[in-house]
Structure formats: structure tokens, C-alpha cells
Design goal:
Elements (H helix, E strand, L loop, with lengths): L11 E5 L23 H14 L3 E5 L9 H10 L3 E6 L6 H9 L2 E7 L5 H8 L4 H14 L3 E7 L8 H10 L4 E5 L6 H4 L1 H4 L3 H17 L4 E4 L25 E4 L4 E3 L9 E2 L5 H7 L1 H7 L13 H4 L4 H8 L18
Parallel strand pairs: 1-2, 1-8, 2-3, 3-4, 4-5, 5-6, 6-7
Antiparallel strand pairs: 8-9, 9-10
Length: about 350
């Protein structure tokens, strides 16, 4: 039986306030998204709706959110509504002054994307020479301003065997958290899948190493957001639900106000400008399917299914067209998933 927890509203909104970006990442999920952005006053009104619905936190992304001309005003307004405000950034535009401004605007946590401990590898992956140095410097500026920092690393072929090096880098730069994000097959991630994605067996080896590191490290929170770690007897201990959190704890809003289950599932379920958030959250047929997935294929006979719930819904949908299909990253067999 699946976990039946259904909140009245998402705990977190991941809000892509813009899609403009100064990088050219090989795995970008939003490069082909609309460039339409909500006017400042409309965005403020939508933030009020979100706060009144009972959402606790908003994480701003993009694109690169620091390219949005009103980011600081938006964050300050959201913070004034009682929302916890965080952001994901590539770090390029974060200097000492910007870090201080972010702190004053209410940001309590900022994640910086760093995909390799090797500058040249990161720079090539992100498409901008010097981006690694600027990202590393951003961590220092943010920490000096009193903002909690984290590092977001998209695991793929360029870094899957460098767990220890990535952890050492995070510790060296005093990041509080290292997020190992599973590779998604959305946008350019799908176009470059054959070059960047791992095989199921390689994912198994990576997660064995990552889980061992998570258990060992005491000064760094090694975070794993992939439901298929259940196959190794583990789960995301910070999560209130089994399987994917998308559509259960969090929701995504695009720059034009369209709501989707997550940033990697391009299925529009409403628009925050014209629709009631709680109504969409409660009545969406798409969200209901995600919350009540049905085991198919090898998932039907897997003893880990009740914890894994088929793995990442975004990957299954992108590669098979069916959110109930087994996660293509899954290394389990027909018997018990081992």
C-alpha cells in the first residue's frame, strides 16, 4: 500500500522566475521553455496566493535567477509574507556585494551548481570558461554574508566516479550540504542522454559509494534525491513520503505561471495567475496519478516497490511515455529488485 499522505498545499514551490541564462549547460531542462515572464506586480500577487494557500518555502530557479531584474525585490516580498526563501544559482554573478544584498533580501540558503572538482571539466560541462572559479568564489562570498550554502551536482558520466573528490571539495569550501542529483532526461538532458547518462549497473555502483560516503561523513550532509536508492535498502531520510516527492511535497511553477508536477515533467496542470493553488493541488488528475502509481513490468514483482514506487517519474515519462513504467535507471531484476 502506498503512502497516502496528502497535504492541503505543497510545502515547497520551485519557481523558475525566468529562463534567461548566461550558461550553455549540456543537460539543461529549460533551455527550450518559453521566455515569457510574469510582470512584477502579477508575480507579487501570485506569491500572496501561494503564502495564503499554506506553502512554507519558495526556491527560486530558472534559468539563472540572478539575471531577473527584480529578484531582490521578489525575494524580499516573499520573505515578508513569511515564506522561507532560497535559490539555485550557477554562481557567476555572486560577489561580496551581491551576497550581502541576497542576505538583506531574506535568502537563508543558496545552492551553487558545481559538477566537478576539476575546473576544466566543470567549465566544459557548463559551457563557460572560468565558471568553476566563479562558483567556488560564490560559496565563500555567501558564507561570509551569513547565508547557508549547498553544492548541487548533477551526477552523470563526467563525475560519477569522483565521489571522494567532490566531498573533499565541498568540505574545503565549507558547504553545509552536497546534493547529488540524479540525471534527468528532460530538455537537453534527453538530447545528450547517450553521452552523459549512466547505465543501470553504473548507477548501482555510484549509489553504493554515495551511500557509504553519506554514512561516513559527519561534517557534510550528503543528500541523495533518487527513489531508487530503496533498492539498496536506503531512502531519503529527510522526506516525509516514499518514492518521488514531486506532486506530494513540492510543485513547480514556470516563468509564465504554468504549474507542473516538477521542473522535469513538462505537463501543465494549471496556472498560478488564474487558478486556485489548493484546488489544483487537490483535484489534478495528473498529480493523483503520480501519488497513486501502479507497478508495471518488473516493478510488479519487486519487493522494494513500496519504498521506491517505480523510481523517478520524470525519467519514466520522458523515456517511455508512461509514468507508471519502471525507472529506466533501475538495475533491479524481475524477482526482487536486487
Amino acid at each position: 500500500m502506498q503512502n497516502e499522505i496528502v497535504l492541503e498545499a505543497p510545502l515547497t514551490i520551485n519557481w523558475a522566475i525566468n529562463n534567461s541564462c548566461n550558461f550553455a549547460c549540456q543537460h539543461c531542462y529549460s533551455r527550450n521553455d518559453t521566455q515569457d515572464e510574469l510582470p512584477r506586480e502579477v508575480l507579487f500577487a501570485c506569491l500572496e496566493k501561494v503564502a495564503k494557500a499554506g506553502v512554507l518555502s519558495v526556491n527560486f530557479g530558472g534559468g539563472e535567477p540572478l539575471l531577473h531584474p527584480h529578484l531582490l525585490e521578489i525575494a524580499s516580498f516573499a520573505s515578508g509574507l513569511g515564506l522561507r526563501v532560497s535559490m539555485n544559482s550557477n554562481g557567476w554573478l555572486v560577489d561580496a556585494q551581491k551576497a550581502a544584498e541576497l542576505k538583506a533580501a531574506g535568502f537563508n540558503k543558496v545552492g551553487i551548481s558545481i559538477d566537478s572538482h576539476l575546473p576544466e571539466t566543470h567549465d566544459q560541462f557548463r559551457g563557460v570558461p572560468g565558471s568553476h572559479a566563479r562558483a567556488a568564489a560564490a560559496l565563500g562570498h555567501l558564507a561570509a554574508a551569513g547565508i547557508t550554502t549547498s553544492i548541487s551536482t548533477v551526477i552523470c558520466r563526467i563525475n560519477s566516479t569522483t565521489i571522494e573528490e567532490l566531498i573533499s571539495f565541498a568540505l574545503q569550501h565549507k558547504a553545509g550540504q552536497l546534493n547529488f542529483h540524479n540525471f534527468k532526461c528532460s530538455g537537453l538532458g534527453l538530447a545528450n542522454k547517450d553521452e552523459l547518462d549512466l547505465t543501470p549497473e553504473e548507477w548501482k555502483l555510484f549509489y553504493r559509494g554515495a551511500l557509504a560516503a553519506k554514512e561516513r561523513e559527519k561534517l557534510l550532509d550528503v543528500s541523495l534525491d533518487d527513489p531508487i536508492i530503496a533498492l539498496l535498502g536506503a531512502r531519503d531520510t529527510a522526506s516525509m513520503v516514499k518514492g518521488s516527492v514531486c506532486g506530494k511535497l513540492s510543485l513547480n511553477i514556470k516563468s509564465n505561471g504554468d504549474m507542473t508536477p516538477c521542473g522535469f515533467i513538462p505537463v501543465v496542470i494549471g496556472n498560478i495567475v488564474k487558478d486556485d493553488l489548493r484546488t489544483i493541488w487537490r483535484d489534478s488528475v495528473v498529480l493523483d496519478k503520480m501519488r497513486n502509481k501502479k507497478p508495471t513490468g518488473k516493478c510488479s514483482g519487486c519487493s522494494k516497490y513500496e519504498d521506491c514506487l517505480g523510481g523517478c517519474t520524470a525519467r519514466a515519462l520522458a523515456l517511455t511515455g508512461d509514468m507508471n513504467s519502471p525507472d529506466p535507471h533501475c538495475w533491479g531484476d524481475e524477482k526482487d529488485g536486487q
